[in-house]
Amino acid sequence: MSVLPPSTHRPLPASLLFVVGLVAFGVGIWQRTGITGQDEYWLSLRAPLEMLERDSWWTPWLNGEPRLQKPPLLYWLICVGYSVFGIDVFAARIWGVLAGVGLALGAMRLHRQCFGRDGTLAGLLAAGAIGVAVETRRAMLDLPMACFTVLAVVSAIEWWRQRRLVFAVGAGVSLALAGLTKGPVTLLFAATAGLASWIAWRRGRAAPPDLPARPRRWGHVAVALLLFLALVLPWPLSMAQLWPQLGDVLAEQSEARLFQWIRFKSIGPVVGGGLALIAPWSVAVVMGLWSGRKLARDEGDRVRAGHRFAFWWVVLSALPFLFMMSFERYLIPMVAPMAVLAAHYVETCSERARRVQLVIAVAVLGVPTIVFAAFVMWFGLAWIAPLAALVLWGWCLREARAARSSTRVALGAALLVGLLLGVVYPGIGINELPSDLPADLRQRRVAIFDGSQPAMLSIEAQQSVLSLRPDDASRAALADFDGYVFLNAEQAADFAEFCAAGPVDPEYRGEFRSFYSRKVWLRFAKPGARWPEWQQALADRDLSSLKPEFLYYEIQHD
After folding, report:
1. Do 384 and 303 belong together in one domain?
2. Which of 43, 96, 131, 490 has the most CB atoms around it within 10 Å of its CB?
3. pTM for the complete prediction?
4. CA–CA dist 231, 237 (Å, integer)
5. Residues with Cβ < 8 Å from 474, sequence gap 6 or more?
6. How far apart are CA 357 and CA 305, in angstroms?
7. Residue 253's domain spans which residues?
C-alpha cells in the first residue's frame, strides 16, 4: 500500500477558514426562533437539564428515566455549556458550531492529502453546504460525530504518511470521541474510509519514487487501539452494570432501524439526501464523481489515487443505508469527501465548465434567498437582513459569471447561507414565546400536555418540562404538581377531561399564538392551513391567522 506525499501546509488559509466557519455557522445560534427540531428541543436540550437537576453527570436522564439510547458526550458538553454560559440555546448549540468548523477544516486537510494542493476551496464548500449549516444550528449528535470521524480519518492518513505517534494518538482519540457521540455507526464510516484507502492506494502507484520507505510501527497502532478502547468502553460497561435494561434499549434501537435486504425505496432518499446535504454544490459533486473516468487517462497516479479514495469513501458510506431506515443527516460524514471531489473538479475543469458550476450553485442558492427575503419583507418582519442577503447573492452571481475566483464565490456562498439561516429565518418568529408569561415560571414546575410544544419552554423555564400524557401515570403525577401546564388549544377538551378524572382543578391563566416547526423546519404554519388561508394572509400582510394557539393553566395544591 502506497501513500500520498506530504503536502505543503499553509496555516493562513486554515486560520481564515476557522474564522469564516465561526461567523457563517455561529451567527444567530442564540436566537430561540432559529432552526430547531423535535430531537433537539425535546431530547438534546432537556436531557442535560435533568442531569444538572439530579446532579448526575455520568448517567444521562430524560423524563425521569436514564437515557441509554445514545452515548453521553454531547450531553456532557451541553452540561458544561449550561454551567458556563447559563441555560440558553447558545450554550447548547456552540458545540455544533465548533463541530461544523472542524468538519470544514477536515475537508481542507483531506483535499491536501488526496491531491497535494491547497484545500481552501474544499473547506469553503463544506462550510457553505446547507446541510452542514442547518446541523450546526441544532444541538444534535450527527455533526459532532461526523467531525470526529473525519478528523480520525485525516489523522490516520497523516500517520500512514509520516509514521509519527502523535497522529496515531489523534486517530484513536478522535474515533473514540465519535463513538462517545453516536455509538457504533461511527465504526461504519471509519471502516468505509479504511476500505476506500485500500482500494485507492493498495498498488503502490500513488507514491512518488523519492518517498522513502517507512517502518510499519505496529506499536503506534496498538497505542491508538488501546486509547480508543480506554476512552470508549467505560461508559457503556458501567451503564450495563448500573442499568440492566441497557440490552433491551439497544435492541429497541436496532429494531427501529428496520434492517432488511436492500430497501429500493431508500435509493432515492439516500442519493438525494446525500447530495442535498452539500447543496448548493450538489451538481459539482456529481461532476466530481464522474470525472474519475477522465482522470484514468490523463492524470498522474497520485491524483488518480486521491480521487479513487474520495469516490469510494462516498459510495461505500452510502451503501449500508440502503438496508436500513435512516435520515439524511446520518450521512453527514460524507460531506467531507464530497467537498473534496467537488473542489477538485471545479479547480481542474475548463474555464467554461467552472463558470457553469459556479453559476448553477449560486442560482440554486438564489431560490431560498429570494423566497426568504421576499417573505420576511412582505410581512414587514425585517428589512436590513433580507436586503443584505439579496445584495450578497447578487455579488456572488456576478463573481460566478466572471469565474475569476472560485474561492471568492464559495466564501460569499458560505456567508450568505449563514445570513439566511442565522438572521433572516429567525425573523419569522418560529417558536417565539410571549414576554408576559408568569413571572414565577422558573420557580414553579412546568408541564406540557400530550405533546412537545411550545418548543422553547424548557429553555424559558430553565428546567426540563414534565411530559403529561392522557394516561393514569400522568394523572398520578399531578397529585403533587404545583405549577403551570401548557397545551395546544386544539387539546383543550382533552385536557379538561383529563383533569376532571384526576380530579384536578386547573385555572386558566392565558393564551398566545406562535409558529412552530412541524417535523421539518420549513413547515411552520398551523396544522390544516390551506392555500385560501395563505392567500388571505398574503393579501392582509398579516400572519396571525396562520399561527397555532396555545393555552396555559395553573394548578395549585393548598
Report:
1. no
2. 96
3. 0.91
4. 11
5. 467, 468, 498
6. 24
7. 11-201+210-349
